[in-house]
UniProtKB/TrEMBL annotation:
It is found in: Membrane. Residues 22-471 form the Amino acid permease/ SLC12A domain. PANTHER family: AMINO ACID PERMEASE, GENERAL AMINO-ACID PERMEASE GAP1. InterPro entries: AA-permease/SLC12A_dom (IPR004841), APC_YAT (IPR050524). This is Lysine-specific permease. GO terms for molecular function: amino acid transmembrane transporter activity. The chain crosses the membrane at residues 23-44, 50-67, 104-126, 132-153, 165-188, 200-224, 245-267, 287-312, 344-363, 369-390, 411-432, 444-464.
Length: 495
């Protein structure tokens, strides 16, 4: 039975079924995927070991500041689909509209990409089975997990993320033994950090290109803001998740890049060919094989399959909750804000599933359409980060301007305003640096394919602003009061 959202429970009528351990692992697992397991090799080949490490360290720091910004807002106002609400409440309702639909679109398309990738991964074992069968199975499985309850989703993500974490720990242990010659037969040491042009290859342009790759790898950390609305104790679990995730990400990513770079020279053709679906030349597979583990390819294929399903599962959850939040905010049809007895917004879930299915079908029926859809979602993650940073900057300024004391906040973002300002600058740098050669060569098709998500967001923002005559909210009029339920932000739409 479907119900309209009410104020009977905190956060409308979705249920706070996510435990602290769920929130921590979801935030961690959200940014550990094929970007680390497979594509990390291409980062080392482009910029060398030193360049890759520099890019990932800088991106890791930026993500940490972004997470603390999100944490300060999420503990003050923990709601599902938080990005749209924060942008609308602290900046401009038109920005909330644009950010919300941008983020929903991003994850709805990502689900379709992931179920397509799952089929390609399955071909490693069963090459003769039609790919669409595996994609259909993956989509049904993800739909059922998200349809049961938020605790079912949380528990599933916990264990899938745990598999990824255990894999990385085993990889680091075996990698260390291989570097010192205990496994693999001979001592390697740091020799690959000094061959040819190493450790830095290609200078700053190469580091910038890896910075872009690293940014995509870290996307998903912002899921902690989505889960806050259904966390049992967001004031405790969100700060805990942010602090834990930062150190785990830095340790996992930096140590992983270090181990790969130490064992496999940046000149290796295998690293140059790294791609999201070529399991045989995954850096993890290569390192395991170098250590003498014959079954490395099959093991890593299973881990990567888990990672892809986990990404699609998180994507379905994030996009469903964003659509639910958009409905509560008056940005989407009211029916999408209805929930069932178990707190699941089924209409939002069904719409997201249909869009993901249609996008997947377009990959078969119209590859050109599919390519444009994927391209349109390419930069949306960075645009969402930009929205989080600017929302927090204005939230904190309004908080102080209105005479509040920082002691009133449950969680304090670190080094304000350095954190959000750094995030804003680096997000712009990454967005502009996606494909600079296209501008230099005046390749308009490539420019459009690469940057199409930017004008789409601007169109959403400007169209909503013109239609509803909204204005940027003055700092003294921003509502910074704490809230523990979904806000109906439609009252802001009149500007």
């Amino acid at each position: 039975m479907m119900k309209e959202n009410s104020n009977e429970e905190p956060n409308g009528h979705v249920q706070r079924g996510l435990k602290a351990r769920h929130v921590s692992m979801i935030a961690l697992g959200g940014c550990i995927g094929t970007g680390l397991f497979v594509a990390s090799g291409s980062a080392i080949s482009q910029a060398g070991p030193g360049g890759a490490l520099t890019a990932y360290i800088l991106m890791g720091l930026m993500v940490y500041f972004l997470m603390t910004s999100l944490g300060e807002m999420a503990t003050n106002m923990p709601i599902s689909g938080s990005f749209a609400a924060y942008s609308a409440k602290y900046v401009d309702p038109a920005l909330g509209f644009a950010m919300g639909w941008n983020y929903w679109f991003n994850w709805a398309i990502t689900v379709a990409v992931d179920i397509s990738t799952a089929a390609l991964v399955m071909k490693f074992w069963l090459p003769n089975v039609p790919a669409w069968i595996w994609s259909a199975i993956a989509l049904i499985l993800i739909f059922l997990i998200n349809a049961m309850s938020v605790s079912t989703f949380g528990e599933t993500e916990f264990w899938m993320s745990a598999i990824k974490v255990v894999t990385i720990i085993v990889f680091l242990a075996i990698g260390a033994l291989t570097i010192f010659g205990i496994m693999g037969g001979h001592f390697i040491g740091m020799r690959n950090f000094s061959i040819k042009q190493a450790p830095f290859v290609g200078g700053f342009p190469a580091i910038l290109s890896v910075f872009v790759v690293a940014g995509f790898s870290f996307q998903g950390t912002e899921l902690v803001g989505i889960t806050a609305g259904e966390s049992q104790d967001p004031q405790h679990s969100v700060p805990k998740a942010i602090n834990e995730v930062f150190w785990r990400i830095i340790l996992f990513y930096i140590l992983t890049i270090f181990v790969i770079a130490a064992i496999i020279p940046y000149t290796s053709h295998s690293l140059l060919g790294s791609s999201a679906t070529d399991i045989a030349i995954s850096p993890f597979t290569l390192v395991f094989q170098r250590a003498g583990l014959a079954a490395a390819a099959s093991v890593m294929n299973a881990v990567i399959l888990t990672s892809v399903i986990s990404s699609a599962n998180s994507g379905m959850y994030a996009s469903t909750r964003m659509l639910y939040s958009l409905s509560n905010s008056g940005y989407a049809p009211k029916k999408l804000g209805q929930t069932a007895e178990n707190g699941i917004p089924y209409y939002s879930l069904l719409v997201t599933t249909v869009v993901s299915l249609l996008t997947f079908i377009s990959s078969i029926a119209g590859p050109q359409i599919y390519m444009w859809l994927v391209a349109a979602s390419g930069l949306t993650g960075f645009i969402a980060w930009f929205g989080i940073a600017i929302s927090h900057y204005r939230f904190r300024r309004a908080f102080i301007k209105q005479g509040h004391d920082l002691s009133e906040l449950k969680y304090h973002a670190k080094l304000f305003p350095f954190g959000p300002v750094l995030c804003l600058i680096l997000c712009i740098l990454v967005i502009v640096g996606q494909n600079p050669t296209a501008f230099m060569n005046f390749d308009w098709k490539q420019i459009l394919v690469t940057y199409i998500s930017v004008p789409l967001v601007l169109i959403l923002y400007i169209a909503y602003k013109l239609k509803n005559h909204t204005k940027i909210i003055p700092l003294e009029k921003i509502d910074v009061s704490p809230s523990h339920k979904d806000e109906d932000l439609s009252k802001l739409n009149k500007g």
